[in-house]
Amino acid sequence: MSLLLFPREELTALAERMLGATGLAEHAAELVAESLVDADRRGVASHGLIRLPIYIERLRKGMVDRTAVPTVKTSGARAGVDGHNAMGALVASEAMGVACALADDYGIGTSVACHSNHCGTMGFYARRAATKGYLAVAMSNAPVTMTYHGGRTRAVGTNPLAVAIPRPAGSPVVLDVASSAVARGKIIVAERKGESIPAGWGVDPDGRPTTVAAEALEGAVLPFAGPKGSGLALVIDVLCGVLAGAASGPDIGDMYENWDRPQNVGHVFLAARLTELLDRYGPALEEFLQTVQDVPAAEGFDSVLLPGEPEERAAQLADRRGVPVVASTWTELCALARELGVEVPVGAPELSSS
Ligand SMILES: NC(=O)c1ccc[n+]([C@@H]2O[C@H](COP(=O)([O-])OP(=O)(O)OC[C@H]3O[C@@H](n4cnc5c(N)ncnc54)[C@H](O)[C@@H]3O)[C@@H](O)[C@H]2O)c1
Question: Which of 246, 328, 341, 345 has its CA 20 to 30 A from that of 5?
Answer without folding.
Answer: 341
